[in-house]
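User: Can you predict the 3D structure for this chain?
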Amino acid sequence: MSLYLDQIKQLVELQHVDDQIHDVKKELEEAPLQVEALKERFEEEEAKIAKINDKLQHMREQQKRLDMDLEDETSRLKKSKSKLMQVSNNKEFQAMSREMDNMERTTKSFEEERITLREEIASQEEALHEVETIRDELKIDLATKEASLKERIATANDELGKLNRIRRDTGNDVPERILERYEFIRRRLEHPVIVPVKNSICTGCNIAIPPQTFIEIQRGQQIWSCPNCQRLIYWAEHFQDTHQQAKKAQQEKPMVFAEDLNLGGDSGNF
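Assistant: Here is the predicted structure, written as C-alpha cells:
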C-alpha cells in the first residue's frame, strides 16, 4: 500500500504543478480577451450614443420646423381675427369663421405635437446621459485594464517560466514509464490527468466506475485508468490526508519523491 501511495503522491505532485501551469496559461489567454471584451462593450455604448444623438438631431430639427409652422399658423390666425372685424355680410363672416376654426384646430394640433416632441426629446436626453455615464465608466476601466495588461502578461510569463522549471524537476522524479503514460494522457485529454474516485464516481468525468474496477482501486495495489475518460484514478479514501499534506507542501517547496515504483501490466492499470 505504501508503495502505491508513493506512486500516487508523485503523480499528484506533478498534477499540482500542471494545475498552476494551467491557471497561468489561462490567465495569458484570458487577459487580452478581457480587454477585447471591454473594448467591444465600450464600442457598443459609443454606437448607442451615436444613434441617440442622430435621433435627437432629427427631433430637434423637427421641433424647429414645428415651431416655425406654429408661429406661421398663429400669425395667420391673428390676421384672420383682424379681418373678421371688418366683414360686412353674414356669408363672408361664416366663411371666415370656418377658416379660423380650421386654423385653431391646426394650431392646437401643432401645440400638442410640440408637447409630445419635447417629452420625447427629454426622454432621449435622459437615456443619452445614462449611456454616456456607462460609456465613461467603461472608458476608465478600459484604460486601467490596457495599462495593466502588459504587466499582467509579463508577470504570468515569468511565473510560467518558473513553473516549467519546477515541472521539469518534478517530472524527473517520476519513473519513465509512469511519466510517459501521464504525458500521453495529458496530450489527449482536457486538464486534469489524475483524479480521485469518490463514492465510486470518477471526479474527472463524473461517471461511475465499474464495480470490479472500483474493488481493484480500493485494494490500492496498482494505478488504474478510468474506463470512460481514460484519466488516471485513485481512491480518495486512500490518499485524503496525504493529498492535503502534499498540497500544503507544494505551496512551500517542490516535493521529493521516492524512485522505487511498482508498475502493473494490465491495459486498464499500470
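The chain has five helices and four strands. The radius of gyration is 39 Å.
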